[in-house]
Design brief:
heterodimer, A: alpha/beta, globular, B: five-stranded parallel beta sheet
C-alpha cells in the first residue's frame, strides 16, 4: 500500500482538543509521525488546502435494511450514503429480516462488507431473540461473530427483569447494550409528539413522558446492575435531565441524540409531512434548546443519524399510515456544523461526538483520533462550501428526508478508510 | 473433647473452623466402617432418623440413608409425593405429627430457603439440612472440604475457583462460607447474570474470565447449570452456556497439572463439564460421593450423641 501525506489540513483532534495546521502521514493504513526520510519514499501527497481533517466519522446508529428489506436500502447503498456523508464506519442495527440475533446474520454482513470493501461495518446484535422481548439472544455467539453491541432498537425491552438480566449477561462479554428507551404502551398508536400541533392535526400524540419513563427506568437498571450501557436517540429536555443527573450520581451511562432533534420541531409536521415522522418524534423548541445545551455541556456523548430508510410508497401516505424514520447519513455532519457556526460546539467537540466517543463506547479499536498509531480513518471537510441537498444527491435507495432542498455550509470532500482515499462531493 | 453441642446443623456457619476439623476427623474414622466386610457399627442403635425430602434427590437421600444404616439407626424415608403433604398438610403440621412418633433426627431437603431452620424451630429433635432452596447444603460443603483435604492437606491459602450458577447454588454458598472459614482464597466465575451481587467476605472475589479462574485454581468446583435457568432468562440458552462456560479439556490445560476438580452432581455432561474429563478420571466426583457417606455418619453421630442439658 502506498504511503499518504495529507498536506495543509487543519487537523482536529478530540483527544488533545486541538485544531492545528499540520500534515498527516499514513503508512500501511496507520497514522504515523512522518519519518525524516519519508520524502525519498513512494508517497502520495494530497494537498487539502486548509480543509478540516477530522478523525473518520462513525455513525453508531444506522438501519441498513439488508437482509430482508433491500427495496429500502442495501449494505451497498447505505455505505455509499455513509461515504457521501463523510463516514468511515457505520454500525447497523439488528432489526433486519432475519433479525441479527445469531452468527449467521453477522457472517452475512461481514462477508458483504468485505466484498464491497468500502467502509467499516460494525453490526449490532439483538438483545432478545427475534426482537421478541421475551428471551435473550445468544450474546456470546453474537460477540464472537462480530457484534460490537446489543440493541433491540425500534422496540424497547418492556420486561425489566429480562432487561436487567440482559445487562448482566452482556457484561460477561463486555458487550455494550444500547437502549431504545420508551414506554411502549404509553406511546400507543401515537404518530407525533403529543402537544398543540397533534391536537390541531387531530392525530394521536406520543407524550414525552413515554420516552422519559423509559429513560428513567433504563438509567435505574444500569445504576443497579452496572453494564456498559448507552441510550439511543435522546429527544426531550426531561430525558436530558435524567441522564445529566445519573452521570452526576456516578452512573456509568452514555447517550446519543440525532441531528433532527437539535434542528427541527413538531412544527415540521404541520402539513402532515410523513418525512418528519420518526420515533422518538420531533419535539418542541424548548426540547431543541435542551438538546443543544446537553451537547455543549457533555451530557450527550454522541451524535448519530438513526438513518432509517423507507420507500417512497411507504412514506407517500397519511401520517398514520407511514412508518417511523428518516434517512440521515448525508445530512448528519452538515446539520452538526450548524452548531459549530452557532458557537455551540467546537470542531473538536464535533470530532468527539461523531468519532472518538462512539469509538470508545463500542471499543472500535484505535479509532477516533488522529494521533500517531491510530488507524488511518479520516474525514476531510470543506467547512466553507455552500451547497444545497437536492434529491438527486441522495445516495440512499430511499429518499425520506425532511432536509431535501435545504441549504448547508460545509461538506465532506473525502474520506480515507484504512489508508485508502475516496473522493466525494467534488 | 467435643465442643459442638448444638441441636441442629442448618448452616455451615453453625460450625467454627475447629468444629469443621472435628467433624472431618470423626468422618475419617467412620470412613473406615464403609471399607470393612461388615459395614455396620452399633453407634446409633435405637435412634430413629426421618429423611424428609420435599425435592427429588438420589445421591443425598441415599447417602444419608446408608449413613444411618451403617450406624444402626432406624431410618425412615418420606417421599413427599406419597405423603399427606399432597393432601394439603402444612409443613408445621407434618413435623408436629411426625414429632409425636419421637424421632431423634430429621434430615430435611426442601425447595424453599429457610425450610430446615423452620423445621428445627418446630421440633425438639435434631435437624440436619440436606439442602434448603438456594440457601445452603452444609453437609455437601463438609464432604467437599474433606475431599480436598485428602488431596491437598491444609485448606489454608488454597485457591478455590467455583464456576457456574453461583447465585442459585446452595452448594456454592455453603462452600464459599466453609472454605473461606478455613482460610482459602475463593474466586467465582460464571455469567454475570448468575453471580451473586453482594459478597461480604474479603477473601472472595469475582474473576474476569473463565481463563483467569482456571489459571488461578488449586481446586475447581464446577456447578450444575439447571436447564430452567434459560427459561427464566438468566442465560440465553444451554447451547450458549456449553459454548462459553463449559470446562473443556483445552481450558483445563490452563490449570495446574495437579488441580483438583469437584462437582456436586448430578452432572450435565458436556454442558458445564466435558464428559471426557470425567471419563478420564480427572475429577474427584466419586471420591466426593464416597466421603459423603462418612460425613453424614459423622454429622448424625455428633448431633445424636451430644450432651443433653
Amino acid at each position: 500500500m502506498q504511503s499518504l501525506l495529507i498536506k495543509n489540513g487543519i487537523v482536529v483532534d478530540p483527544v488533545t482538543k486541538t485544531e492545528v495546521k499540520r500534515d498527516i502521514y499514513i503508512e500501511a493504513g496507520v497514522i504515523r509521525d512522518a519519518p525524516p526520510e519519508y520524502k525519498t519514499r513512494d508517497v502520495k501527497v494530497i494537498d487539502v488546502k486548509n480543509s478540516v481533517i477530522l478523525p473518520g466519522l462513525i455513525d453508531m446508529h444506522v438501519h441498513l435494511r439488508e437482509p430482508g428489506f433491500e427495496y429500502k436500502e442495501t449494505v451497498k447503498s447505505g455505505m455509499e450514503a455513509a461515504i457521501a456523508g463523510g463516514f468511515t464506519s457505520i454500525c447497523c442495527m439488528s432489526n433486519t429480516n432475519p433479525v441479527n440475533d445469531s452468527k449467521s446474520v453477522n457472517i452475512f454482513l461481514s462477508n458483504k462488507a468485505d466484498s464491497l470493501n468500502l467502509i467499516n461495518l460494525f453490526p449490532i446484535g439483538a438483545i432478545s431473540k427475534g426482537l421478541s422481548g421475551t428471551s435473550l439472544s445468544n450474546m456470546g455467539e453474537l460477540k464472537e461473530s462480530g457484534a460490537v453491541a446489543l440493541s433491540d432498537d425500534g422496540n424497547s425491552v418492556e420486561d425489566s427483569a429480562l432487561m436487567g438480566r440482559a445487562l448482566l449477561y452482556a457484561r460477561t462479554f463486555d458487550l455494550p447494550v444500547i437502549f431504545h428507551s420508551e414506554d411502549t404502551k404509553l406511546r400507543g398508536k401515537g404518530v407525533m409528539n403529543e402537544g398543540v400541533i397533534s391536537e390541531r392535526l387531530g392525530v394521536e400524540g406520543i407524550p414525552y413522558i413515554a420516552e422519559e419513563i423509559g429513560t428513567a427506568r433504563d438509567v435505574m437498571l444500569v445504576g443497579y446492575y452496572g453494564a456498559n450501557a448507552h441510550i439511543a436517540h435522546v429527544s426531550t429536555a426531561g430525558s436530558v435531565d435524567i441522564i445529566r443527573r445519573a452521570k452526576k450520581d456516578g452512573i456509568k451511562i452514555t447517550c446519543e441524540t440525532c441531528p433532527h432533534y437539535f434542528t427541527l420541531t413538531e412544527d415540521s409536521l404541520l402539513m402532515y409531512n410523513t418525512n418528519a415522522k420518526m420515533n422518538p418524534p420531533l419535539r418542541t423548541k424548548e426540547d431543541v434548546a435542551a438538546i443543544k445545551e446537553a451537547l455543549a455541556d457533555g451530557t450527550i456523548d454522541v451524535i448519530a443519524s438513526d438513518h432509517a430508510p423507507h420507500s417512497e410508497s411507504e412514506k407517500n401516505t397519511t401520517l398514520d399510515g407511514a412508518p417511523f424514520g428518516i434517512i440521515g447519513l448525508q445530512t448528519s455532519l452538515p446539520l452538526t456544523l450548524r452548531l459549530y457556526r452557532e458557537n455551540k460546539l467546537s470542531l473538536s467537540d464535533i470530532a468527539a461526538l461523531m468519532s472518538l466517543n462512539p469509538a470508545k463506547i463500542l471499543n472500535l479499536g484505535n479509532r477516533g483520533s488522529l494521533q500517531n498509531g491510530f488507524l488511518a480513518d479520516i474525514t476531510i471537510v470543506d467547512i466553507q462550501k455552500n451547497w444545497r441537498f437536492t434529491r438527486d444527491k441522495v445516495k440512499s435507495l430511499s429518499k425520506n428526508s425532511p432536509f431535501i432542498g435545504e441549504k448547508f455550509t460545509g461538506i465532506p470532500t473525502g474520506v480515507i478508510v484504512g489508508g485508502n482515499l475516496i473522493s466525494i462531493n467534488q | 473433647m467435643m465442643s459442638f453441642n448444638k441441636k441442629d446443623f442448618i448452616s455451615i456457619n453453625d460450625l467454627t473452623a475447629s468444629d469443621i476439623h472435628h467433624f472431618i476427623e470423626i468422618a475419617k474414622e467412620f470412613k473406615k466402617v464403609s471399607l470393612k466386610g461388615i459395614k455396620k457399627v452399633p453407634t446409633l442403635r435405637g435412634k430413629t432418623a426421618i429423611n424428609l425430602f420435599y425435592e427429588p434427590s438420589t445421591r443425598t437421600r441415599l447417602s444419608f440413608e446408608i449413613a444411618q444404616k451403617r450406624l444402626s439407626a432406624d431410618s425412615l424415608n418420606i417421599a413427599v409425593s406419597q405423603s399427606s403433604v399432597i393432601k394439603g398438610e402444612s409443613l408445621r403440621d407434618t413435623i408436629l405429627n411426625l414429632e409425636s412418633m419421637n424421632p431423634d433426627v430429621f434430615v430435611v431437603r426442601h425447595g424453599e430457603s429457610g425450610a430446615a431452620y423452620f423445621v428445627s424451630e418446630v421440633t425438639k429433635a435434631s435437624v440436619i439440612n440436606a439442602g434448603d432452596g438456594t440457601n445452603e447444603h452444609p453437609t455437601q460443603c463438609l464432604l467437599d472440604i474433606m475431599t480436598v483435604m485428602e488431596e491437598k492437606g491444609d485448606i489454608k491459602s488454597l485457591k478455590v475457583s467455583i464456576i457456574g450458577d453461583i447465585c442459585h447454588s446452595r452448594v456454592a454458598r455453603s462452600d464459599i462460607y466453609g472454605f473461606a472459614k478455613l482460610g482459602a482464597e475463593i474466586c467465582l466465575y460464571g455469567p454475570h447474570s448468575l453471580l451473586p451481587k453482594l459478597i461480604e467476605l474479603k477473601n472472595v472475589r469475582i474473576a474476569e474470565s473463565m481463563e483467569e479462574a482456571l489459571r488461578y485454581a488449586d481446586v475447581i468446583i464446577m456447578l450444575r447449570i439447571q436447564k430452567e435457568r434459560a427459561s427464566y432468562h438468566f442465560i440465553p440458552s444451554i447451547e450458549e452456556y456449553r459454548n462459553f462456560f463449559q470446562l473443556t479439556p483445552s481450558l483445563l490445560s490452563l490449570s495446574a497439572k495437579d488441580v483438583k476438580i469437584l462437582h456436586p452432581g448430578p452432572v450435565n455432561r458436556d454442558v458445564e463439564i466435558a464428559g471426557s474429563i470425567i471419563d478420564d478420571n480427572k475429577t474427584h466426583i466419586f471420591k466426593q460421593v464416597e466421603n459423603g457417606v462418612a460425613i453424614r455418619m459423622a454429622c448424625l453421630y455428633i448431633l445424636l450423641s451430644r450432651q443433653k442439658n
